[in-house]
Amino acid sequence: MAQKILDSILSDEFDYNILSDRLKGYKYPRNKIGALLKSGVIIRVKKGLYVKAEGNYSKFLLANMIYGPSYVSEDSALSYYGMIPELVQTVISTTFARKRHYSTPIGEFHFNVTQKACYTASVNRVELDAQRAFLIASPEKALFDRLYHAEGIDTIPAMREYLFDNMRLEISNSLNCRNLGRICKLSGKPFAKTLFQVLENEGICQ
């Protein structure tokens, strides 16, 4: 019976409304949800949000669902694009609301804050399948968001050390300097000039 319920849910990530709709034929749907959780076939990520325990759920999609509006960014996105060597365990996202952190049975989710003026700039939609998609920063936006909260990077030596020694950044051909410039201009952040000086010295942005 549990498998039949799971099969009726198309996505491996789903909310309470979807689950309760699939259980509307039961006299006590809340009791059935409790039984599904106890049996371990579904996992409650947070109140009202679930995943199939044996499903191929996406943590990036879940990050969008856990707290929004938000998009995956910073080290999570940079790792996704192969621009930093580390495999990032905590999913880091950006929002213009309040800073948040969620510890869940499937992992940690952290949400940093950026300016509302540049929030929507250069955010990509990645489709997992016909029903599922998540929002993620472009390589340029992910780098900007990472530097947005950094301190002590106002000089060229400090910026260079932060990028290549601290972050161990590997900048590929996918970095669009013009797009990065537009994002920095929207923010008006003083680190932008130093960043471009370093990128020019490295022959990345000319």
Any overview of this molecule?
- It is a single chain.
- The protein has helices spanning 2-7, 16-22, 29-39, 59-66, 74-80, 139-148, 156-166, 177-187, 191-201, and strands at 13-15, 42-46, 49-52, 71-72, 91-95, 100-104, 107-113, 123-127, 133-137.
- The protein is of the alpha+beta class and 206 residues long.
- Helix 5 (74-80) packs antiparallel against helix 6 and helix 7 packs across helix 9 (191-201).
- The protein folds into 2 domains: 2-52, no CATH class; 59-201, no CATH class.
- A hairpin with a 2-residue loop joins strand 6 and strand 7.
Can I get a quick summary?
The protein folds into two domains: 2-52, no CATH class; 59-201, no CATH class. Helix content is 40%, strand content 20%. It is built from nine helices and nine strands.
Features:
206 residues, alpha+beta, 2 domains, 4-stranded mixed β-sheet, 3-stranded antiparallel β-sheet, 9 helices, elongated
- The gross shape turns out to be elongated
- Characterize the largest beta sheet: strand count, sense, and whether it forms a barrel: 4 strands, mixed
Q: What is the first-to-last residue Cα distance? A: 62 Å
Q: What count of structural domains?
A: 2
Number of helices: 9
- Report the helical percentage: 25-40%
What is the strand arrangement across the widest sheet? 4-5-7-6
| Helix/strand order | HEHHEEHEHEEEEEHHHH
Parts with pLDDT < 50 across at least 5 consecutive residues: none
Averaging pLDDT over every residue, what do you get?
Answer: 93
Which structural category do the helix and sheet elements fall into?
A: alpha+beta
Gyration radius, rounded: 20 Å
Strand content: 15-25%
Number of strands: 9
